[in-house]
Amino acid sequence: MDVTGHTPLPPEAAPQRLTVDLAVSEGPVLLGANGALYGIGDDGVPGDAVLAPLKITSITQKPEGGAQHPNGDALSVAGSFFRNGGGEINVMMQDVYAEWPYENPGIDDYLPKVDRIVKEVAAHPHGDRFVHIPFNEPDCIWYDLGVPDRARYEANRDRFFQDWRTVYRRIRSLAPDARIAGPNETGYHTRLMSDFLAFAQRENVLPQVVTWHELGPNSLRDFQSHHDDYRAIERRLGIAPLRISIDEYANRRDLSVPGQLVQWVSMFERNKVYANQAYWDAAGNLDGNVVRTNIPNGGWWFFRWYAGLTGDTVRVTPPRPHTVDTLQGLASLDASRRQAQVLLGGSDGDVDVVVCGVPRAVFGRTVAATVAEAAWSGYEGQHAAPRVLARALLEVAADGSVTVPLRGGHRMSAYRIVLTPGGEGTPSAPAVPWSASYSAEDAAITGGRVPAREADAGPGGYATSGTKTAGSPGTAADRVDFTVTVPADGRYDLAILYGNRSGAPATQRLLVDGADPVTVTYPSTQNLAYRAKRDLGVELSAGAHVLTLAEDDGEVSLDRLDLTARTGPPSASYEATLADIDGSPSYDYSSSAGVGTGALVLRDGDRAVFDVYAPRDGYCTVVPRASAAVRLTLHGERLTAAPDRPLRLYLVAGNNRVALTARHAAVRSLDVSGAGSTDGTLSYAAASATLTGGAKLVDSAHAFGGSCVDDLGDSPASAAEFRVHAPETGRYMLVVHYAHDDRRDNGHAYNTDILSRTADVTVGADAPRRLTFKNTWSREDYWTLGVPVDLRKGTSSVTFRNATGRAPRIGGIELARVFRPS
After folding, report:
1. How far is 139 from 154, CA to CA, in rounded Å?
2. Which residues of 15-34 are buried (b: 16+ CB within 10 A; e: fewer)?
3. Contact 71, 283 (CB under 8 A)
4. Helix count (H) and strand count (E) of the chain?
5. Is the pTM of this model over 0.90?
6. pLDDT of 99-148, one tens digit each?
7. Where are the beta strands (DSSP E) in 448-598?
8. Cβ distance 4 to 432 under 8 Å?
9. What is the pLDDT of residues 759-807, one digit of tens each?
10. Is 377 left (phi over 0), alpha (psi -120 to 50) or beta?
C-alpha cells in the first residue's frame, strides 16, 4: 500500500520508522489535551455542531464580568459548553482585572473580587464543574518569582505564599468543596514548584489541580522532564499524585496546524494530563481551529480524530522522542470495538508505521487499513472531510506486526491510520486526485515584499507553509507569477491561502498565461498573517502554465496555491464504525467491501452520529449505506431513509451532525456529495424587509442584494420584518446573511478583542429566539448563520429585534426545507 496523493517530496535515504506497540497499554484514553483558553467567546460562538464532536474535557475562561477581555465570561459560556458534552471550566480569577500585566492594587482589593467570583460560581447549577485558578503567571505578575537573586526570590516567594494561603482559605470558607488550581507559572520552574508544594502541604492549602504553562517550542523537548520532575517532588514529599493541567500550551505557529498539534497532544495524552491551547488571537474559535462560527479547518479535524480515540492508548516510539518539530504520534486500541487508531505527523517525507503486538484474537490474520490526511488550511481556511488516501487489506506477519507505508508526507499535516479486522471482499480504492502545492516565496514576484516567515519571529509568529511569505503588492503593476504544471486537460480546483487586512473584501486579478483576467475576491481576515483559504476553479490544458495574481484593490498577502484535479462534485464517505455512538451497537467486520471498516449494527436504543461537512449552505445528496431502513435526524427533522436511496438534505456551511437510528440495520457508511445547491431555497434581500424604530436600509456593495439593514436594535421599537411564503408546513433552515465588526481594544499586544452581536428572531407567533453573531472582521464581510425553524404553509413573518443592544447588519435571509424530495 503506497499512500500518496500529492506531488512527492524528495525522499530521505530511508523512511522514518514510527513504532506502535498494541501490547503495551498506557491506560484509558483521557482526551485531556483538547482544551482551549478563551476557546468559547459567547454562547453560540463557536456553534454547537463544532463543539459537541470534540468531547472537550476543559476550557479556561475569565470570571463573569471580568474586565480583562470583552467576552468569554465563564458563566455566560457554561450553557454552551455543558450542553455540548464539555467537562469542566477553569476560572482565571485574576482576569477580573482590566490591564495586562494586571494592575496591582493589593490583596485587600483582590479579596472582595474573589468573594464575588466564588459565590457566583457556587450558585451555578453546575458549580461543581468549575475550578478556581486564583493566580495567573505569578512568576511575572505581582510577585516576580523568576529573579535569580536568592534573597529577593525568597522575599517574593514568601509574599506569594502568604497571599496564596489567604485566597485559598477565603475560597474554601465560601465554598468548602471548591476545587483550586495553581501555582500556574508561565513555565515549569523546579525551584518554585518544590517550595510551593512543601509550603502548601505544611499549611494544608494544596491545590486539587496543579497547573503551569508550556508555551515555547522547547516545551516539545522539555515537557517530559518537567512532568517527571514534578512527580518526583510529589513522591519526595509524600503527596498523592495530583491532577496536572497545562492550562496554556503552544505558540501561535502551532495552533490550527495538524502536524504541530499532534506533537503537543501526543505528549500530554501519553502522560495523562489535561491541557488547554493558548489564547493568542481572538476568542470564540477554539484557539484557531474553527472558521467563522461552524466551519472546520485542518486543526479541527485533527481534534475530531483525537476525540474518536477509544479504549486504551498504547506505546508509540517515534524516531526522535522529545525533539522539537519532528515526527510524533499517539495511538489507541479498543478491543471491544476491535479497532486500533494511530495519529501521527510533524515531518516531511516517507514514514513506515510499524504496528506490533497485533492481537490475533481481536483482529484475526488480516487487517483492513484506512489512511487519511488532515492538512493545514490556515487559521480561517475551511477544510473538507479529511481525504482518504488508501484502503487495503494487510496480512498480519508471524511476529504479530503490520507495516503501513506512508509516502510523501507533509510536515504540517496529520495522518490517521485505522486498523479493523479484515473480512470478505476488497475495500474500495479511494479516488485520490492529482494535487500539487506552490509556495508564494518560490513564485516570481514583481513589486511587493518577501519577509521572513512569521513563525520565526518568536512566540507570536504565525504559521506559514514555507520559510517566507509574499507580502502585499502595492501598485497596479505588481504581481505574483506561479509556474505550474498539470498532467492533463481539465478543470482544476485552485485554493489560495492568503491574508487580508484591508478592512473590507479585497480583490486581485487572476490570469492564466496572461489572458482573460478574472477577479478574485478575498474576505477579510484578522491580519495579513492570519491565513484564510479562497477556493475557485480554473480550466487548464496539460503542461506548464503561469498563474498570475495581480494587484487590484486592497492589501493581500499570499502563502501558497494548491491545485487539485477535479474528478467530480465534492463527496465523502463517513464510516459508520468510526461514528459517535449511544447505546450498545455491535461491530460487524465480516465484510471489508466499500469503506473497508465493516458495519455498525444498530438496534432499538442505539444511535450513531456522523459529522458531515458541507462546502456551503445548500442541498447535498445523502445516501445511507445500510442493510435496512434507518431513521435519520438532521436539524431537528426526522425521516425514514431507505437503504442506499439518495436523500436531498439541506446542510449548512461547515459541520452538520446527522444522527441515525434503526430497529435493526447494519450501517456501513453515510455517503454525502454535492457542492451545496441553492435550487429550491427562498431568498429575501434586505430591501424587502419592513423597518421600524430607526432601522434603515443602506447601500452595501457586498450584500447579496446590494443593500443591508443597518442601525437595527437599541430600542424595543426597532425591528426588521421579512414577510416570507412557505410552500408547505415543516422544518426549514433559516440562513441569515450578516456582518459587523464590533471590537473593544483592551490594550493587549497580541489579543484581538472582538465582540459578538445578538438579535432576537421571531418566526410567526413563536416565542423570540436569541441568536449570537460572531464578528466578521469588517462591516462589509457577510457571513451566514443557520438556525432551524418551523413554518406553516403560506405567508408568515420573520422579525429581527434587539431591545438592549445593536444587532448586526442584515444583508438578507434564505429559507429552505431541511428535506426536499428529489
Report:
1. 12
2. bbebbbbbeeebeebbbbbb
3. yes
4. 9, 50
5. yes
6. 999 999 999 999 999 999 999 999 999 999 999 999 999 999 999 999 99
7. 479-486, 490-500, 506-512, 515-522, 532-540, 543-553, 556-565, 571-575, 580-582, 586-588
8. yes
9. 999 999 999 999 999 999 999 999 999 999 999 999 999 999 999 999 9
10. alpha
